[in-house]
Write a structure and sequence with these properties.
With 260 residues, the chain is of the alpha/beta class. The protein is 47% helix and 14% strand. Helix 1 runs parallel beside helix 3, helix 4 crosses helix 5 and helix 5 crosses helix 6. The two termini are 19 Å apart. Pfam families: ECH_1 (PF00378).
């Protein structure tokens, strides 16, 4: 039983919702543990093909809940703090490492680590009242959860440096203009599920392996080696055969799946 995170599956989509709307879905330690657990569950579930990450009541995640933060320097050792931060980073690590596509449905503030959770997803949909903010410097901290690594790779170093050093907001319009978000939607979760449905109509192994190949850190030769292995997996996959047959017969493919 989870108190801070809701995990729901339907029609091949796992929806993970940070459920602390009274604090704009800001997280505490329990939230982080539950988020990590939910992501592990989604990754291991063969009936899940796409993951949607969002926040309760149309929001997303306002970062750490400052009302429940201890006095770090007084109450924790450096090693204990490192363990806590590693767990927060592991949410980003899991989202980045999961081959199943993930979509962030950002309806409200995505601040600090909450911003990084959104950046770690493969796709983002934002609501008209949403914003993303790497606001660490404003409270005397560094982007410890991945933001200074993720944002330059998504929007370029120069613009990312502006947002990281000033802590200013990325508005919905800016997010779309920068290619950070795929759309602005009145209901980001509904739009995210529409995107998920589009992905569900495609051969699942090909989607997962393509997602894994999108890695700016690898060399071209590393890419080619991985692509050979992945392509062979796809060539021998039943959904590839069905997709080819459906194309030749001018019909929609019928993939035999057990929905979550």
């Amino acid at each position: 039983m989870r108190d801070d995170v809701r995990y729901e599956t339907a029609d091949g989509i796992a929806t993970i919702t940070i459920d602390r709307p009274e604090v704009y879905n800001a997280f505490r330690r329990e939230t982080i543990l539950e988020l990590n657990e939910a992501l592990r569950e989604a990754a291991a579930d063969d009936g899940v093909y796409v993951v949607v990450l969002t926040g309760a009541e149309g929001g997303f995640c306002a970062g750490a809940d400052v009302t429940e933060m201890p006095d770090w320097s007084e109450e924790l050792t450096e090693e204990e703090y490192a363990g806590y931060l590693w767990a927060v980073q592991n949410v980003v690590r899991q989202l980045r490492g999961m081959e199943k596509p993930s979509i962030a449905a950002v309806g409200g503030p995505a601040v600090g680590a909450g911003c990084d959770f959104a950046l770690a997803c493969d796709l983002r949909v934002v609501g008209p009242d949403a914003f993303l903010r790497e606001g660490f410097v404003r409270v005397g901290l560094v982007p410890g959860d991945g933001g200074a690594w993720l944002l330059p790779r998504l929007i370029g170093e120069a613009k990312a440096t502006e947002y990281l050093l000033t802590g200013t907001d990325i508005t919905p319009a800016d997010a779309v203009d920068l290619g950070l978000a795929v759309a602005i939607a009145d209901d980001p979760v509904e739009r995210a599920r529409e995107l998920a449905d589009e992905l569900l109509e495609l051969p699942a192994l090909a989607v997962r392996r393509t997602n894994a190949l999108i890695d700016p850190e690898q060399s071209f030769e590393e890419y080619c080696e991985r692509a050979i292995a992945y392509q062979w997996e796809c060539v021998t996959d039943a959904e590839h055969a069905e997709a080819i047959a459906a194309f030749g017969e001018d019909r929609e493919p019928n993939f035999d799946r057990d929905d979550a």
